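Dear colleagues,

As part of the handover before I leave the project, I'm documenting each prediction I ran so the next person doesn't have to rerun anything. This entry is a single chain, and its sequence is reproduced below.
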Amino acid sequence: SKSYVFRVDAEAMKNSPNALSWLRLVQAASNQQEQNMEAYLKNAQLYFRCTRPIRKDEELLVWYNEELSHLLGFSEIKTRTMADGFKCIKCDQVFKNEHPYLAHCRFLCVQ
């Protein structure tokens, strides 16, 4: 079986929104049981790797720990909590779980 590792270039992340276009394919898992990828730090660099074989057309789902959440700027995102989830301040999209909400705000929201 093949194994892939992807490194996120933090400088490119700061300077070019297009540099992370492949990262849009990776969604935040609702919890650790749902994840099929993990994000980790090595030598101050962010990497993604598979935690199990991923089937064709299966969504890539990653779990962010506290250290990575801080690195990716999730702690800077303002949260609008609702009784049934989280609402994006920019586009009003609603999420049931915090991690998909934070990933949307950081990587996906077009507003």
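DSSP finds three helices and eight strands in the chain. The chain has a mean pLDDT of 79.

All the best with the project,
I.
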